[in-house]
Amino acid sequence: MAEQVFPGTPAFERGLALDGVSRRQFFFQDGGPPRAHSVHYAWAPVRAQALSLDEASAGASNSWLSSTLRTPSGWRSYATSRSADERQLSITVWESADGSDWTPVDLRQAPGGATNQIWFDGLPGDQTSVAGPSVVPLRDGRWRMYFWKHREGHLRYLVAESEDALRWRVEDVNRPVLYHPADGGTWKLAEGLAVEDIPAVALSPAEILSRKRLWSNDASRVHYNALLDRYECYSVWLHPAIPDRRVDVDNAPGVHRMIQRRLSEDGQEWSDPELVLFPDERDPWDLQFYFMTVQPLNDFLVGCVGHYRVEDGQQTMDTDLAFSTDGVRWHRPLSGGWIPRPEGVHGIYGGDWLDLGGEWMCPYAAVRGPHNARSFEMQMMGAVVPANRLVGVEAGLAPGGFMTRPFFLREPVITVDADIRGWLRAELCDVFGRKIPGFHLMDSRPVSGDSAAHAITWKGDTSAHRHEFLRLRLEFSGAVVYSAAF
Fold first, then answer.
1. In a 10 Å sphere around its CB, with 0-12 CB exposed, 13-18 middle and 19+ buried, how is residue 272 labelled?
2. Right CATH for 396-485 from 1.20.120, 1.10.760, 3.90.550, 2.60.120
3. Does the structural domain 47-391 have CATH classification 1.10.4030.10?
4. Average pLDDT over residues 102-123
5. What's the pTM?
């Protein structure tokens, strides 16, 4: 018996309440934190663990956990499953109490399919190539799923709705959220897009132009932003290939992939796209961005970004982390993949995060073979990090340091999340960065060790500075600092 999910509960809840003020500062901005010296950014250490999916009992194969929601005793995840012969794609449902061991939900909806396969009511014709589910809550307590349908001339992002998040109905197959350019044959293979032969459909110039506004590839995610009460879609914009960046061995050499965002009040009618992430002068010449999933973290959004090297001899997919406070400007303090990619694995595809209590886990598909290969051998894994540790600021043996942004001292307690093999001291400053008497470095009690909450203390008492705006200047050696809380 499947568990009821709670309306409005994503797998990872680290956003702020509507009237909330963040008491924690992270250091995610491009170019380093303010007044930094002798420090550099560093990924948090990642522990990789294999996830167990009982695919044999469900009759599924190569299942990729995609969109995950909370249940009273754990999680439910909607996955894309590939058949053993690699010819069919379906959407399946899994549940887990611990985030590691996943069992199929016994639906028995699909004729002759996997026991946990969703069979969509109202979706006529071929349902043997549906994939990429995003499940979000509706304001009336029901649920909506966005998913890609292929075949029968279709390459489109459809909408289904459900009372219980288990039985789904498509109301209108001809009212998609997004179109792949190849839907209906409007973008020919001659443009460099390696898809199955799709019959052309007679469309007027106005219809083609209308579809072009909604173009994307089939790596798309929709999220419900509870804080702003709106739906947000992050997907791929297909920019025409520039000759000196074109790579013919890629499966789509005629385009460069970038990340677009669209907004919607009702999740049906969407805004024009905003281009929010594309390679810049710091990036390799052949880099493309293939996907982005987004989850809240205090007053930040954290994006898992597909870091795709298309050059011949690579064809690798890593998962980067990007950070934003508005969803438009994204900071990438580090680049190249925060999840280690072992030898033999060419693709790391990250999904929704799970809060395990003290640790966070990002389930990901580890795919063998380059992206342009026809093999889809993969394994579901989990990247586990201590809670709140994503990107840190590190100093080696030579002391380094930086200054925080201004903060409001509500209580006379200041803590730092840091792994300190050497030492760390701090200085309390006003908003202009001037030292406050009695709280100089020489007055700071050094701290060391690995702790999520090192208490920063001085010879003086910080109580006198409660309800003031202050800044903290940190100096440390042999340490990685991940955040500070006030």
1. exposed
2. 2.60.120
3. no
4. 95
5. 0.94
